[in-house]
């Protein structure tokens, strides 16, 4: 490529310019798209080249090697200057008056793009895909890694270009492009209830000491006489302790401790016959006074007149 004083001759256009935001001129529509305003000399140079239409450009910040792509809106800027959207200057980390390199390029038509909104507010729009389709009509190309601005209802929504196919920079002019959304940057998944943390080390099983159930002991109640008179003695309370050995009276009237063999033969709640402890005491001999009373009663019964049949008075039916 060579310059003859008026035009560049060749197939590539490349020039350095100082950049300024679109707020410097009365062109507010620049902020809602990706097009820049170039000087008239750029149009003359491009017209002399055999370039592809629509005109697409690579804009590079040579200081930090940041690159984006854009289209052109008009050729009315002052010589040596270009005006670009402020969000594009932010992507390239440019300040007012910084130098950028502008070069014409040819980009493939896009088939797929993955977008990621910065905030969940964009998804709250009734039909975000329709709004995005309308907004992208003001864009000529997309570059992976850029953040574009979509205005809607007096609010600005910023969206990251996460992925583009078939290349890192694609043309979206007159093409059918599949659009996919990634979760917004500020999206947080709902917290799930966490299970309580397991205790460190093996858990010690709590030993539950079972309380001994009360067992049935027969004949442990108090005795009562049928005639209502008080008892001459009180029965000893039954002992529930297993450690105590029962005291048994032997035939000689002396108390002795039952042997372990006798314990084995005596099941609780049962009567065991044949053991010394269960022998009934011998009946006491009848007292002399009681014998006399018995003879008296028998004598009184003998003296009572016996019943004699037909021993009453006679009466006549005639009167």
Automatic annotation (TrEMBL):
Residues 13-108, 109-184 form the Ubiquitin fusion degradation protein UFD1 N-terminal subdomain domain. Residues 184-319 are annotated as: Disordered. Residues 251-262 have a biased composition (Polar residues). The keyword Repeat does not apply. Keywords: Ubl conjugation pathway. GO terms for molecular function: polyubiquitin modification-dependent protein binding. The keyword Ion transport does not apply. GO terms for cellular component: VCP-NPL4-UFD1 AAA ATPase complex. It holds the Pfam family UFD1_N2. One of its GO terms (biological process) is ERAD pathway. Residues 280-306 have a biased composition (Basic and acidic residues). Belongs to the UFD1 family. PANTHER family: UBIQUITIN FUSION DEGRADATON PROTEIN 1, UBIQUITIN RECOGNITION FACTOR IN ER-ASSOCIATED DEGRADATION PROTEIN 1. This is Ubiquitin fusion degradation protein Ufd1-like. It comes from Arabidopsis suecica (Swedish thale-cress).
């Amino acid at each position: 490529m060579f310059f003859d004083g008026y035009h560049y001759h060749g197939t590539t256009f490349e020039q350095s310019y100082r950049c300024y935001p679109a707020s410097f001129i009365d062109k507010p529509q620049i902020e809602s798209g990706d097009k820049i305003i170039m000087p008239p000399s750029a149009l003359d140079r491009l017209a002399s080249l055999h370039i592809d239409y629509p005109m697409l450009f690579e804009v590079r910040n040579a200081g930090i090697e940041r690159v984006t792509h854009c289209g052109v809106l008009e050729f009315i800027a002052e010589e040596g200057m270009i005006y670009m959207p402020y969000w594009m200057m932010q992507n390239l980390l440019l300040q007012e008056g910084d130098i950028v390199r502008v070069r014409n390029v040819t980009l493939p038509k896009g088939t797929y793009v993955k977008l990621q909104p910065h905030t969940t507010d964009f998804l709250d729009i009734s039909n975000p895909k329709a709004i995005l389709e309308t907004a992208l009509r003001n864009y000529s190309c997309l570059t992976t890694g850029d953040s574009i601005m979509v205005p809607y209802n007096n609010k600005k929504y910023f969206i990251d270009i996460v992925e583009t196919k078939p290349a890192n920079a694609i043309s979206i002019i007159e093409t059918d492009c599949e659009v996919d959304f990634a979760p917004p940057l500020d999206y947080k998944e709902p917290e799930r209830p966490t299970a309580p943390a397991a205790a460190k080390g093996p858990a010690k099983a709590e030993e539950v000491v079972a309380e001994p159930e009360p067992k049935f002991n027969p004949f442990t109640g108090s005795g009562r006489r049928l005639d209502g008179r008080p008892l001459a003695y009180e029965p000893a309370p039954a002992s529930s302790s297993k450690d105590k050995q029962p005291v048994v009276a032997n035939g000689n009237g002396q108390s002795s401790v039952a042997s372990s063999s006798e314990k084995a033969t005596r099941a609780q709640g049962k009567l065991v016959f044949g053991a010394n402890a269960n022998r009934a005491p011998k009946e006491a001999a009848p007292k002399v006074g009681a014998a006399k009373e018995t003879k008296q009663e028998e004598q009184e019964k003998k003296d009572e007149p016996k019943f004699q049949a037909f021993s009453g008075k006679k009466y006549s039916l005639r009167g």
